[in-house]
Design brief:
Length: about 80
């Protein structure tokens, strides 16, 4: 079970191939939902940044703090979208 955090080698590779953002779990969740004929809509929050020249190990505490900071905005956004 997750989370499955990126390694420094993965960050380096993703930078080389030009990735701007990488999802932690959206793709597997959408694949499962679509196999079950569940309509999907996804919104992601970028919780950690990768600077190719200064790659650091990802810490789950930092990711959780960034997600918590984004939660009020996302709650309001979803409320407005669904009303």
């Amino acid at each position: 079970p997750g989370p499955n955090l990126e390694t420094p080698a993965e960050y380096k590779y993703l930078s080389i191939i030009g990735a701007d953002a990488v999802g932690m779990s959206t793709v597997p969740e959408v694949i499962v939902a679509r196999h079950m004929d569940i309509p999907c809509f996804a919104v992601s929050v970028i919780t950690d940044l990768c600077y190719p020249g200064a790659i650091e190990e990802v810490k789950i505490e930092k990711i959780l703090a960034a997600a918590a900071k984004a939660e009020p905005f996302l709650t309001e956004l979803m409320s407005k979208m669904l009303s």
